[in-house]
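Example record used in the benchmark description.
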Amino acid sequence: MSARTVFSPYSQLFTVPGARAFSFAGWLARLPMPMIGLGAVLLVAGETGSYGLAGAVAGTLALSGSVFSPLWARAMDRRGQGAVLRLSMAGYLGFGGAFVAVVMAGRAHWLWFLLAGLTGATGPNIGSMVRARWAHALEAGPRQTAFAFESVVDEVVFVVGPPLVTLLATLVAPPAGILTGLVIAGVGGLWLAGLRATEPPSHPSGSENTSRWSAALSPSLFVVATAYLGIGAVFGAMDVVVVGFSQAQGAPALAGVALACYAAGSLVAGLVYGVVRPPGSLARRFVGCVLAFAVAAQLLLGVDSLGVLVPAAFLAGLSVAPALVSGMSLVESRVSRSALTEALAWTTTGLTLGVTAGSALAGAAVDAWGAEHAFVVPAVAAGAAGVLALAGAPLLRRTRRAAARDARPTPAEPPSG
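Model output (structure tokens):
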């Protein structure tokens, strides 16, 4: 069987009218995801020399995003994606530019935190919007393949973004990376907002408002988002620790390369996961994938040089996309269409809350222990993700039938035993 045949499900996705445009616009709008956070770390660390402060500022940005992005997503479910996205992008670009300006001007640190928080609070959750468009377009189609493709798109973002922002910040000027990210976000976000033909229908608030809220915050979503806390902590910690470790090794520009290798491993695994049908229910796949993620991340404990970091990051990254795709697919299969964008945004909230904790803890660890020993932070966070997923498995089994009454089932999901 040829590779073309194996991966043909991906080409079939783009027979959907408008799919190429909204998927590419979504990729462009997501490209700044690692650029903004990592750009903030590089900018603040470059201006102050403190990775603790840099991690705290980047964590504030991520934390505010995790709190407010589900509210933006809920507004999109009610009023439509286009109008709400234009509003959020205006705030995102304005506050992001102001954040860079006050850091470069050396203003009070409290103002850095305030503007970082406002930037995160106005940042839209592009990934949930694009996945909601796929779910709307593929009424009875291969949603796992579409979700896996979007996970691959996410990883391409993290392959391209970190080296780009690192090179811009280190070779051009400290603010160049984050400013470039803001410009790209504006172009992609406003393009996506204009693609009204593929936008899911809005569900104005009314008689089903209460049921929509309860549907979005289902027990399955709680389990997935909780496990994603640990996964997000790994992501946040990796940004800070890898930057600090590369600086300590005398090769700061290679931080982006190492982070790109971590994302590249996930990209490869995501492509494969999207065309295979692993045995077991979606719930079992999710728990198994998160446990694999927890084990793979322990490779980071052996990092003592850049020569070891790059392959270790790639191998650890192989477990990332399956964990994320399986969780998103599980949530999508058990939630009402009227709350889908919001529910998917809540999963990202779990990730970004973890990023907040991970970046802050890793920054403190780098300052206190040195960057090499700080790799214990992402390793422990990954282990915690595995424990949380395993602890939530009984709840997933008990709630599957109840959740199925309010959600369209995924055709590829076999019955759980």
